[in-house]
Amino acid sequence: MEIIDQLFKIDGNESTIFMSLLAMAVATILSLIITKLYQITFTGERYSQNFVHTIIIMSVVVSVVMNVVSGNAGVAFGLFAVFSLIRFRSAVTDAKDIAYIFFGLSVGMTCGLYQFDLAIILTVFACILFYILYKFEYGKGKDTQILKVTVPENLNHENLLDDVFQTFTLSNSLRQVETTNLGTMILYTYAIRCKAGTKDRDLLDRIREKNANLKVSLTYMESE
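== DUF4956 domain-containing protein ==
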């Protein structure tokens, strides 16, 4: 009984099994909240359950690591050297995913230092901030679109779409010109950014009036 009492006794800054278990439990709960927010605010094309699990696992593991290295500079440098050898198997392409990784790591580190009140405050404040940014789409810019217009070879196509671009777009740039259909047609490729409130159908209808009702395509580039 004396051994058990000693293990679960909190003595100043001295690490105990009880405090380590508590740190892992708090890190798990807070990382579950973080990953739930990630699922709600996810806007990418490829959702990964493994990424969600990784955030939880890393948060818990880091809470233990911080407990180990706390107050021991030699161990801290040793672990830093070990972790520097670790590489993610797949690259993280979404900048927001990187933010969630650091979010989980920060919560795990804070729990590992037994700063539970700070970890809870960090989680609540950051989750509210992330959700507000997601809800109000703060910082969202105009999507770039790829416009392809087919024009008859015998049509006077010089500055053909200037007035259309002036009416419907904020910016436009010619990316490629190529012949098609055995040289009887010319295909123009533009990168454009439409004005707010512009409807795709209205833009395409105006272009079809200019290019003898030939093929026009509008492709949305993947936004980040």
